Amino acid sequence: MRVKNFFKHHPSAWLPVVMSAAALAFTISYVCLFGVSKEPHDEGLPVHVFQLLMGGQIPIILYFIFSQLSKKPREMVHILIIQIVVFIIAFAPVYFLEL
Length: 99
What we know:
Elements: H1 3-9, H2 11-34, H3 45-55, H4 57-68, H5 73-96
Helix pairs in contact: 1-2, 2-3, 2-4, 2-5, 4-5
């Protein structure tokens, strides 16, 4: 089974990618609308939504790894690399803008 078909048949393969993309889109849209501001006391709703989107991926990725490792290890590694790259890309604005 090719990677393209693997995404189609396994929601645990594409869901983390969608969650990372949503977190990135949410971060970029928030920065475009409100700018980069640091609130001293409360982190605020945007930070909590970002944390839920990014943290919620971890159990899904772990489920994906453990469910597919013995079945299709090569495809699993390719998709895991995609998931990790998108995860890092979603964190990049937060890191570089020090949000």
